[in-house]
Write a structure and sequence with these properties.
76 residues, alpha+beta
Length: 76
């Protein structure tokens, strides 16, 4: 488990052993898990974002995956 990003609004964790990424939107208390190709695409987008160094772009990345964040985040 690798915490990729954690601030007051978002929590992103990479689980390389199971090829998955979890996103928690703390603002709405919802999250989701991505696996396989979706996780690979998300990782690639995160790498591009990290190279840019702009925190504001994270919302743009997360908004594309909003439909996947359907689980209540009660343990994070």
């Amino acid at each position: 488990m690798n915490v990729v990003f954690n601030n007051a609004e978002l929590y992103i964790v990479d689980y390389p052993a199971v090829d998955a990424i979890e996103i928690i939107d703390k603002r709405v208390g919802r999250g989701g898990m991505m696996r396989a190709e979706t996780a690979h695409r998300f990782r690639a987008e995160l790498e591009i974002w990290a190279e840019s160094g702009e925190e504001a772009d994270v919302d743009a990345i997360i908004s594309a995956y909003g439909a996947l964040m359907t689980q209540q985040a009660i343990y994070h």
